[in-house]
Every structure is written in structure tokens, then in C-alpha cells.
């Protein structure tokens, strides 16, 4: 039997196309790895060539031009109309405000050997004010904190710091709140002001000092102006956010009742965003306190100057005592303003029967406060804090003893840890950055910027690299970049470990978050002191201080990112047989990528600001250049260029990581 196979008839229908093999996309990590491999290969061939190294005492033409501009401004300050009728007038107004507050609470006035209000009156005002805006617990904390400042023997220094902080915050709020309201009401103005606020909050505190001394000279006025400029952005941004967060239905209801634009603002928008605005004021106060301490570099009086002098002489005991006073002052100011933002809501929820007596009690408290002010103005015993600061002497002695013990007994451990990080991470990476040709480093940074953040981030990086070369401090910039990168890696390791723990455990979050919140209150200066005792004046001290300073914000962001992973997703992974490690590495961390990128962004900015401050304790590089510019007139131009380089590094880091965060969350 023969079987005949018939050919299938051709039909008019189109033939099915052959399956197309999927194109394998190259991941970003593979591209970055390729860039690094090429960089390492070329580094091995071109090491030590075209590195743009500049000795500490050498200047470029740009630095000399900055020096000439500074000299010219100094010579014509009282004849140039721009300075005579603008900058000098601003300086005079700010100086009068600062002098008034100082004579009120910290400095002798006229023939009086003491200020107008002595310690007893100040403590009374602080206690009554804290009670009025907060509650009695906060008032007790404030009274105890300010009394402790006197027991430390640092009353006048603390009041000088408080005077500069109050002056700067007062002037800052005069224009910050109106600008914040404007930004909240106007989309166009908000779009215009946001990039400037981003830049101002990206710039480390050091950067504000040098250019402002160019226009306002060194002294308390310049320190206050630098402080208010640095401290204003949080209030502007948070006030705008508060205004925009008011429900549209509420505003529409007010409009339908015939409310004018002004009535809607004063009767609806501002009252409903009051708590948010007070939170902005809190952040401004904290930023002002941090800046006032740093402003000791331009002769700002107060606790910052005490810490600065102690750090320069490696006097750990004195630095610790003054640093502790800064911490106490920061905690009191933070708790008072935080309580003020929540008082109305807490009062509504509270069933305390004594609330009905609040107004009469406040009236009695006002009378007692007035009596204390009179006594402190009239009698010397109530004006000068009694005692010789025995508590401060004990703290200094104890800190010195602990330092000596640590150096005698822990030096082997601390030196081993320092050498491991320095030799294993810092030195190799710093050598790669500083010994590579500048164009090779620039090309690698631009390539990484394009891969992580896109074309716009790459263009920003290219502009920043070009300007870094133009500043004449390329080598120092790369040294600072190396320290910043190593510290950021350590910050992210800590942030991931503790952030995941906090995100997965409500108990861990409750235990750790208050400590992290308190750590973010402390000014950068304070972090240098304990690590100076452990590791001495080295660049590693600055790196460790930067890690501890930046880690809290990274931990909190990562914890929130892990916590926001849907519980159903975690349950599905658990039911599929995944263990804890697999759930963390395969589910929670990948789904929290945007939080990780944001944590990297914030960690970089915090680390950069702290690494630069570390120039005071041997970190060198850009931080040292800025400090040397204040202390040595011939290096002023180089210090100004170093400040510009810090800004460029901050902008480059911020733009790349922000763009990467947006691409990750898209």
C-alpha cells in the first residue's frame, strides 16, 4: 500500500514570522563595572601623569585673582557706593540686632559689668516660655538644661551662642515664612525657588563663610548673616509644603462663602498649617545652632569658639565640656519647639483637669518671671551665675582621664581598626583618584553619572568636573572625594543593617529611633570630639565622625522603605518557602531600591559636610584649605576656591543620586 503525501496548499494568509530572539539588555551595574575596569587598566599605564597636584602653599592665577578682589574690596569698602549704601548697611542692621540681644542676655552693657538680664532672669524666661508654648515637662527640661550650662562654667559662652542663634532665626523667619507662603500659593514661584533651596541645603556649612566675609568682613555680623542664609531654607520649604497640604475642599468651601484671598490665607491656610510651619521653625533653629558653632571660624563668639580652640590645641577635655553644652542647648531648643508644634493637639486629647487652670497659672508664672527678671537686673548675685563651674571642671577632668585610658589601653585596637580601613579602603581609592590623570577621572565620573542618572546628570557632572579643574584644587578635591566615598560606603553598610532591622521589627524601631532623632539634633562639631580622643588628629577621625553623623538619616530612610514593602508580598514569599535572608535580599531590599538611593543621596551630603569640617582635626584637603584661608591672608583666594570646589562636589553628588532615585522609582 502506497501512501501519497499531499503538499499543503498555499493560502493567501501571511506566514507566521519566525520567533525573534529576545535582545539581552545590558544592566547598569555591568556598564559601571566596565567603566571601572577600563579606568583601572588606564590607571596602571598612566599613573602619576597629569594629576594637577598643587602644593599647600602654591597658588594659581584664580587664587591670586581672588586675593586681589579681596584686597580691592577691603581698600574700597567705605568708598564704593555698593558697599557704602548696601552691604555696609545690611551689616550695620544685623550688627545692631546681634548687639542688642547680646547686651540683653550675654554681654556687659555700658557701665554695667553684667548684661541687662542675668542668669536668673534668663532661666525664668526660658522656663515660662517653654511652659507657655509646650508643657510643664518641657519647662522642667529647659530649666534643668540652662542651669546645667551655668554649672559647666560656660554660661556666658552659651548665652553668646543663644544670642547669635536667636538673632539669626528672628531675621530668617521675617522673610522665610512669607516666601514659604508665596511658594505654597504660587506654582510658578515654587518652581523658581525650589532649585535654589536644593542648592542651599546641599552646600555644607563651611561654604557659606568665605564668600560672606568677602562682603561683610569677619565678625559676629557675618556669622549671623551666614547663619540666617543657611537656616532659612527649611522654613521656606516646610511652610510651602504645609500650605499645599491643606485640603482643596476646605479652601473651596471658604471661597464659596465669599472669603477673600487674604481671609482664606489668614483664616484657613495658615491656621490649618500651623503645626507644619512650627516644624519648619524647629528645623531652622537646629540649622542655625549648627551654623553658629561652625561660624567660630570667622570669629563668632560662643561655644563654637571654645570647641574650635580646644580642637586646635587637642584639648579633649575642654572640647568635650563645650561640646556637651552645645548638645544640651540643642536638645532644649529642639524639645521646646517640637512641643510647641504638638501642644494644641495634645491638649485636645488630654483629659487633665488642670487644663482649665492653665490661663490663671500662666498669669501667675508671668508675674514670677517678671520678678526674676527684676532681681537679675538689679542684684549681682542673680546676674552672675554662682560658683566656679565645678561641674565643668569635673567633666573636663573625666574626659581627659578617659582619653588617657583609651589611648593607653585601646590604642592597639583603635590603631588596628584605623589602619585596616585606611590601608584597605581609603589609600587605594584615594590613590586611584589622585594619581590618575585628571581627564581619566573626569571621564569615569561623567560615565557613571550618565549610567546612573541619565544624560542630564551626565551633563551636570561634566560641568562640575570642568569647574573643579578650573578651581585649581583638583587634587585636594579628589582627596575629599575619596574620603567621602569611603565614609558613604560605611554609612550605607550601617544603614542597611540597622535600617532592615528597624523596618522588620517594631520594637527595634521604638528603641532606636529616639536615639537617631537625638543624634540628628547635634551640630557637626560635636562629633569630632570623642573620635579625636580615640584616633587622634588624623583624616580617619573625620571619616569616622562623618559615618556616625550621617548614619542616622540613612538608617531611618531605609527603615521606612523596608516597612513600606507590602505585607502581602512578604507573606507570599514566606508561603513560597523563602527564609528570612531570602526575604530580605530578594524581596524587601529590591522593592526598597528608591529608599536605598535616597539614603545614599542624603548620606553623601551629610558625609561631605562632615568630612570638610574634619579639616580641623587633620583631615586635610578642601577642609584644610578653607580653614587656612581664614587664618592666612595669602591663602584666602585658595580657601575661596576650595569652598567653590565643595559646592561642586555637593551638586554633582546630589544631582546624580537624585536622578538615580527618580529612575529607580519610575
Instruction: Kindly estimate the percentage of residues that lie in beta strands according to DSSP.
Output: under 5%
How many alpha or pi helices? 29
Q: What separation lies between the terminal Cα atoms?
A: 68 Å
Tell me the structural class. mainly alpha
* Cα-atom radius of gyration: 29 Å
The tally of strands reads: 0
Compute the average pLDDT. 83
Main sheet summary: none
Uncertain runs are: 1-8
Amount of helix = over 70%
Global morphology? globular
Task: Give a written overview of the molecule.
- The structure is a single chain.
- The protein is 80% helix and 0% strand.
- The protein is mostly helical.
- Helix 7 (187-202) crosses helix 9 (220-245), helix 14 packs across helix 17 (390-409) and helix 19 packs parallel to helix 29.
- It is globular, with a radius of gyration of 29 Å.
- The termini are far apart.
- The model is unreliable at 1-8 (pLDDT under 50).
Question: How would you sum up this structure in a few lines?
Answer:
The chain has helices spanning 28-46, 61-76, 81-105, 119-133, 136-151, 155-185, 187-202, 205-216, 220-245, 248-256, 261-272, 274-294, 303-312, 316-349, 358-378, 380-383, 390-409, 411-435, 438-453, 455-471, 474-504, 506-521, 524-535, 539-563, 567-575, 580-591, 593-613, 621-631, 636-665.
